[in-house]
């Protein structure tokens, strides 16, 4: 049965900076793991804010991770990672853009940059 992994497990897995925890993270992921959109958002926030990785590196690492870890709304998360890497918006806004593109959801916002990406005049 798959286990739900949190941001700390994903970070240890990606960064391999705490050997004992990295091993446990690898074992959990190999055994079958899944996560949720909110955890992905937290990982993006930590990798960009704390570890100061580039947007492209973050998107690439998490896209590869999603080959090993299931996530709710996979298509939305993958598009959001691409938008995050390509446009200068935060990840949550990238998720909104992705939901608009993938799920055809109508997004209402006062954010001019987000409206532009959403194709709203």
TrEMBL record:
PIN domain ranges (all copies): 3-116
Presence of keyword Methyltransferase: no
Pfam families: PIN
Keyword tags: Hydrolase, Magnesium, Metal-binding, Nuclease
Superkingdom to which the source organism belongs: Bacteria
InterPro entries: PIN-like_dom_sf, PIN_dom
PANTHER family for the chain: NUCLEIC ACID-BINDING PROTEIN, CONTAINING PIN DOMAIN-RELATED (PTHR39664:SF2), PTHR39664
Listed name of the protein: Nucleic-acid-binding protein
Source lineage: Bacteria, Bacillati, Actinomycetota, Actinomycetes, Actinomycetales
